[in-house]
Each structure stands twice: as C-alpha cells, then as structure tokens.
Amino acid sequence: MSERRKSAVIIGGGLGGLFTGAILAKEGLEVTVLEKNATAGGGLQTFRRFGETFDTGMHVVGGMRPGGNIWRICRYLGILDGVQLMDVDDDCTDRLFFAEDRRRYTIAQGREGFVESLARDFPHEREALQRYVEAVLRIADHTDLFNLRPSASGPSLFASSPDFLMAATDFIAQFTDDPRLRAVLAYMNPLYGGRPGQTPAYVHAIISTLYIRGASRFVGGSSRFADLLAEVITSHGGRVLTGDGVEWVEVSHSPSPSAGGARGRHVVNVRTRKGIVYTADHYISAIHPCTLMQLMDERAFPKAYRERLNSIPNAHSAFSLFIKLKPETFPYINHSEYYMTRYADVWNFSRADRPWPLGFLFMTPPEDCHAGCTSVTASKALVTAPMPFDMVSRWASTSLRGEGTGHRGPGYEAWKEEMAAALLRQVEDLHPGFGQCIEAVNTASPLTIRDYYGAKEGTICGFSKDCRNIALSHLPVVTKIDNLLLTGQNNSLHGFCGVPLTAINTAEAVLGMNYVINKINSCAASS
C-alpha cells in the first residue's frame, strides 16, 4: 500500500488560504479549505448590485507583468493562461490630484518613466528622483523572497540593506527637501496603512517597486482569479468548502506525534458552525490572528503571545462607494486616480483626529469590452477612502450575522449617507459633473469589512508595521502550537504580492526550506 497522504485543513478561504492551499495541494497534500462566506476569495470576492459585478478588493495588482514574482508563482501553479488582466497605461499608471493647490501629477511606468514624469513638475529634482528610484529598487532587489531566490536562512522579506528598517518618511526625506515632492512620493501609503515615523522603508519600497515595474487590473471581476486557485486545490483532490466557517479549534496539551511524543500544544480538530469536525496533520489559519484566538481556549496560546497579538495596532480600514453609472455618461479610465486634500496630510489617513475624508482612490474597473479600446465608457466606478475604525466604534457591538441591511439602526444608515455625500463632493471636485452620471450607489464601511472578512477593526492591510519595534509587528508563520501555522496579510506584507509570498513561507514550513522556491524557479527554467 502507498503511504498515506499528509493532510492540511485551512481556516479561511481568502487570498492567503487559497494560495497556500493551492501550493500544498499541488505538492501532494490532501487540502481542505473552510470558508465562512458563501464564496471563497476574501479580497478577491465580488458581489452583484444594480446588475453590475463589483470587486471587494484587489483592484490593482503588481507582480503580474511577464517575469514578475506573482506571474512566476501563477506559472508554477499552472493557472497563468486562465488569468484575465489588463495592464494599466504605461505612460500613466497613476494620476494624483491635490486639492490644496489644484495640482495634478502623472506617474509613468518604469524606472525612467517614473523619473521623467515627475521631473516635468519638479525639474530641479531630477537627480534626487533618480537617486530615490535607485534606492527603492535596491531595497526590493536585496530581498530574497520578493525575488523568489533561495535563502540559507529560509524565505523572508527581511534584507540587510541599511535603509531597510528606516522609517519610510525618513527614507523619502533623504532625497528631497521639497515638502510637495515628499508628499507625492508617498502617495501610495493609503494602500499600505502608512504612518509617519513608523512604517518601515521596506514596505514603501516593495510596494512602490511593484507599481514602478508595471501594474495590472483584473478584467471582469477578481473572483475569476479566486476560482483558478480553488481549481488547483480541487484538481489535486482537495476541497474548498464555503458557507460554514470554523467556530472552534480544539487544542490539547498531550503528547503529540509531530513533537516526537513530547508534551506540547497540538490541534486535535476543528469544528464548524454546522457542527462538522475536521481533522488533519497540519492546520493553517488564514484569518486575522486575533480572530483565531477567539476560536480556541485561552490556554491554547501562552498569555504573553496573546497579549502581544492584541497589542499590535491594526492598519486603517476604509469606507467605499460602489457606483453604477448611467450608460454612456462617463469615460473608462485605464489607470487609478488619487485625490489628496493637503500635502501635509498624506501620512495622516489613519488618524481619527483629522477631518474625513482626507482623500480617496478612484477607478473605473475594466470589463472585457475595454480591452484594446480607448473611447469606451465605464459602467461603474469605485471610490475607496481610508477610514479609522474609531469612526464606527459606536456600532462596534453590531454584527452582520443573520441580519439584513439596515439592522445597525437608523443612526448608522444616516451616518453612511452623510459619509457618502462627503466623499461624492470630493469626487465632484476631481471630476466636475460626476454626480449627473450616477445611477445608484452602494456603500461599505469598516464594519462591513470587519464582519465580512473577520478582520479585526476592519483593517484592510493587517497589522501595522512599526520600524521602531519590528519584532512586535512581524509575526512568524510558525506558532507555539506544533501543528498550527499562520498565513495571510498579518505575517509579513499584505496585498496581492505580500500574501502569496507569505503563502510560500507557510508552505515551506510544511514541505521544507526553499522547496517551493526551487520548484517555481525550476518551472521557469524549463519553459
């Protein structure tokens, strides 16, 4: 008889759970993914409103241009041909608007494109821009995991670059004294929950590098990508089970086989809301670590570990508008637009003591009909504004479970209408006459994100990284429970690049150091 296949149960079917599950399933493990929502995908999920399909997250992705790190992972998984993407315009990957002085800035793709596009507005800073881009790319190049390079110490997003753990604000300030240019160079920090004097330079550099190298967007909804990852799991004999989340993780303190018979903490099984019990050799949590702790006895983790997790601040949440547009009224825009109120507030999106909104991200999602076209109109628009969870804390005790729209009370509904109106006033400032193009609007608040994803305080970027105490916010995938691993945005880096890289880290904790990295590189070399 052949040896029994090792098995893994993954708690949570978001991007981290699906990528980790796909890797492990491809490498021979029997994988079961348990997702509480009706569909898997996490930030890749879509929903239908007003006859339109809207993405819930992952609106813009990096690393998917040919040869990019996530492109190579997808090639290894065998899903590359099924991925439907549209590259943003190379001559304008992003456009910025600062209401303070009515200035617009265009960011072009590529090392030279980035420098030249900003040098038009800051001609005396050309040399500074060149040095800045070189430093950003150097940090990314020194990071083995980001470049899918084998490492003697195992996969990690840490590197020895002297700028690596500098505060991103200080890193940018090395290159220019111009406060406007400093703010422009930091324009993407709402995407990673940037905080002044805290967010490490490597977070800023890695995410900036992804967009400098070229960004892409999912065509027709990001859930198609989630389906591809799920198909990898099922095609290798695994399961992706939805609509029945884990409600309890049973942990014992008895001798365990994986610990060589030594006494230690060991997951025995997990139980879902429907009362179904699952057992496996390995258990992997792809949900927020603080949410995970609520699913087990408090003795499962040491007190110091629990206190540490609960003390880590979370990055900000967001308030979003999902807008259906009247037919043939608004153009399709093949790049993202950032609206900023004041240069001095670029780093203040996480602060509750500032007026809201300080700015937003605006985009028109691509559909199949937009491929290769330049004059097509948009059918919908997305507006996402960073928002501190404190703004909804008065309704924090409410929950979506088993309830319909409006259950949080009339005060909450009135507040959402007020926030939507404030946000739309700023959109009107960016695009005069936009209000006349709107047919219908759906809103989502930090509470929506918290309840839908199970993310503590509705964080969209996971734990906030702090260069002053990086050990606090850098969470290893290995835990004090011998057969429980972590994966997802709270371990190293969030987003469409960071989460798959962490999935490699988690998978190699099961399969062996550099095992997955070598498989990915071998696949690239043989094709």
Structure description:
This protein has a seven-stranded mixed β-sheet with strand order 8-7-16-17-18-15-19. The chain has 527 residues and is of the alpha/beta class. The protein contains 15 helices and 20 strands.
Concise structural overview:
The protein is 30% helix and 18% strand. It is an alpha/beta fold and 527 residues long.
Reported for the largest beta sheet, the result is: 7 strands, mixed
Radius of gyration: 23 Å
Structural class: alpha/beta
- Inertia-based shape: globular
Which whole number gives the mean pLDDT?
Answer: 91
Strand order of the largest sheet: 8-7-16-17-18-15-19
Contiguous runs where pLDDT drops below 50 for at least 5 residues: none
**Helix run count:** 15
**Quantity of strands, as a count:** 20
Terminal CA distance reads: 35 Å
Helix content: 25-40%
Strand content: 15-25%
Overview features:
527 residues, alpha/beta, 20 strands, 30% helix, seven-stranded mixed β-sheet
Mind sketching the topology for me?
Elements: E1 7-11, H1 15-26, E2 30-34, E3 46-49, E4 52-55, E5 61-62, H2 69-77, E6 85-87, E7 94-98, E8 103-107, H3 111-119, H4 126-141, H5 168-173, H6 179-185, H7 201-212, E9 215-218, H8 223-235, E10 239-241, E11 246-252, E12 266-272, E13 277-278, E14 282-285, H9 289-293, H10 303-311, E15 317-325, E16 336-340, E17 359-363, E18 380-387, H11 410-430, E19 438-444, H12 446-453, H13 470-473, E20 484-486, H14 495-511, H15 515-526
Helix pairs in contact: 1-8, 1-14, 2-15, 3-4, 4-7
